[in-house]
Design a protein that fits this description.
With 361 residues, the chain is mostly beta strands. It contains 3 helices and 27 strands. The strands form 7 sheets. Strands 3-2-1-27 form a 4-stranded antiparallel beta sheet.
């Protein structure tokens, strides 16, 4: 889900550029703000609102698929305290929600139906995402200090950071295949072009796979292959240094690259790739548009399915719909819009400041 140096930090550093790149929807189709009763947060969609970098106004919105009701600011409402500064992602496992709050250097643990706080896991630097291995262990990617990243090994039994595994620069997206964790080293404000492979039985690095600049998304497909979305080098403001993005396919059985599809020019920087419930179709953001890519395809489509600029992207397996996040001007509440995979808009709803990630329950 979102894919720069802890994306809201970029919003603070380069707000003018990002506002230009992300169009504001001044007339969304629909809005619902009815608040569901306590305990009704289980079956629905959590929208992670990053909030402004340094403002501590991150929070979570909840969307009820059946009633189409949106409840905003549910962490603050339930727990009577702020969630923190820059909420990056959320993972649900075994009745709990794990919310990664990167500029607050923590993971908040909540009950996934009441949203009542259960624990706070500390000891991080700039955490990005959490992935669960089993009932006792999870991994958190962390950009670390000055981009010297690590994967944090979390003990879910007592909600503590048990150890750290060094990686490349600014690891973000992760997937698990068999006994191995794959972490994409996105590079942050620096550069990186590698995937760190970790044996989950020994928690040691067993391989480093060279891909292309700025790997920002990892998805497992129906054939067990790993698709890496590489954004390419973005040397802003010096556009002459740009390199094109690419889709790279890895066979986790051998860690060999079996396919590389390069975008047609240095201005193309794909990100935020998600995969549908069949594990056969990728969807990604690129140049203010949403594109689809079947994993069996040999070439990229030149035709976007949605011709709009978004900050985040998700796929709801339950409704078989794409969710897109519109961050607006990055200071006021944003919106999320739902689309059919054909690109037809379904509806839209007002949420919190800088919506950037979707967690489906």
């Amino acid at each position: 889900m979102k894919t720069t140096i802890i994306k809201s930090a970029i919003a603070a550093i380069a707000l003018t550029v990002m506002v230009t790149a992300c169009k504001k929807d001044s007339s969304p189709a629909t809005q619902t703000t009815t608040k569901p009763p306590t305990g009704a947060y289980g079956a629905g969609v959590f929208v992670i609102n990053q909030g402004q970098f340094g403002h501590g106004n991150a929070d979570v919105s909840f969307f009820n698929r059946s009633t189409k009701a949106v409840s905003n600011g549910i962490f603050q409402s339930v727990n009577n305290r702020p969630l923190g500064d820059v909420a990056q992602s959320m993972t649900i496992y075994n009745g709990k929600g794990y919310i990664v709050v990167n500029n607050s250097a923590k993971v908040e643990v909540v009950n996934d139906t009441t949203f009542k706080s259960v624990a706070t896991i500390s000891g991080f630097t700039y955490p990005y995402a959490l992935i669960v291995l089993n009932s006792t262990t999870a991994y958190v990617s962390d950009w670390g200090s000055s981009g010297n990243g690590f994967i944090g090994v979390v003990n879910l039994s007592n909600n503590t950071l048990a150890s750290k595994i060094n990686t490349g620069h600014s690891p973000g997206a992760m997937v698990i295949s068999g006994n191995y964790l794959y972490a994409a080293n996105a590079g942050g404000l620096g550069t990186d072009s590698t995937i760190t492979v970790i044996n989950t039985q020994t928690n040691t690095v067993t391989a480093t796979i060279q891909v292309n600049y700025s790997p920002n998304s990892l998805n497992l497909d129906v054939n067990g292959k790993i698709w890496v979305t590489c954004g390419g080098y973005d040397g802003w403001p010096n556009t002459s240094l740009y390199t094109p993005g690419s889709l790279v396919c890895i066979n986790p059985s051998t860690n060999a690259i079996v396919n590389t599809i390069v975008f047609p020019g240095s201005a193309y920087h794909p990100s935020n790739t998600v995969i549908d419930g069949t594990l056969q179709n990728l969807y990604y953001l690129c140049n203010s548009q949403v594109f689809a890519f079947p994993v069996t395809a040999s070439a990229l489509s030149s035709t976007a399915i949605i011709n709009r600029s978004f900050y985040g992207l998700g796929y709801d397996n339950s409704a078989k719909l794409l969710y897109t996040a519109n961050a607006g001007d990055f200071t006021n509440p944003g919106w999320f819009l739902r689309y059919q995979t054909t690109g037809v808009v379904v509806d839209s709803f007002k949420v919190g400041v800088i919506p950037g990630y979707f967690c489906f329950n």
